[in-house]
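Data availability (excerpt). All sequences and predicted token strings are deposited with the supplementary files. A representative entry, Methyltransferase, is shown inline so that the format can be inspected without opening the archive.
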Amino acid sequence: MKNKIIKSAKDSRTDKTAKNKIRAKNNRTTFVSKEEVLKFEKRLLSVKDTSSNNFLNKTIYGALEDVAEKLPKHFVDLLFIDPPYNLNKDFGNNQFKEKSDKDYERTFEKWFLSIKHTLKNTASVYVCCDWKSSTSIYSVLNKYLTVRNRITWEREKGRGALSNWKNCSEDIWFATVSNKYCFNVEAVKIKKKVIAPYKENGVAKDWTENEEGKFRLTYPSNLWTDITIPFWSMPENTDHPTQKPEKLVAKIILASTNENEVVFDPFLGSGTTSVVAKKLNRKYIGVEMNKEYCCLSEKRIILADTEKSIQGYSGGIFWERNSLNIQKDNVVKGRTRSKNNIYEPKLFPEK
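Structure token line:
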């Protein structure tokens, strides 16, 4: 069968010459055609139609500064921000230009303050960044919130470099509005293969064995090495240039929310945050200024009605990389699941 020539959402811009994109027959990348854009744009919420009671489980098409003032106070349980990094980047019809560190810090502060009013007193905030923008992001968060930690996650394939060290990691700052916040560590345990199993008096210590091998359930650290970047053979893959993996977002949502709580992404991009929130029985709201990406988000949200799996997460546990063949819907002894297979979070009290 010959490769099929199709046009991606990013290629269907009206202000630039469209280019045909050739995809292999086994390429599972999700995209939207021009016809699908016309279909899915009817599902989008416009800025003028946004009100205080109609925005949940919606994708809002518009610029953040226009949408923010329409949103009510204190309804968000988890704010996940994946802003444009301080790099020259093309996001479809919108380009972001690199700024000085101070100017980028002011820009991010303006973005954050425009939506700070939406946060509950118990809300958690996660902000993605790279090594260049990390200090600017920290500066702003530390001014208005309590910064709890910095997560560093390893990209499976680093970006190449000939005159510098290969850049293969990114940061995520974790902060909270107050000392009362949700953090459910039991929901984000990782199952790893044990290389050198230890026994005490002939009894396995901290690990179990089955027909697939010896495994240990471990609590996650702030160094994440189990994340796989979406690629062409994965249905979660899109043409968005800075798409985050569903597994990464799932860890954050499971750790910092209960079911039916609200997850807000003000830079929605290809829709990953809303998609994962839906798969995990959370409410969601996403804001995106690129129409094609909004429509791509809606397509993925609809697909999540039937495709509820998250790569690297099964049986209520996260698995290390390259373990797809041994992932099963395991029942882990001694752990209490809710009826929807989500562990009940703990709410940390005020100190």
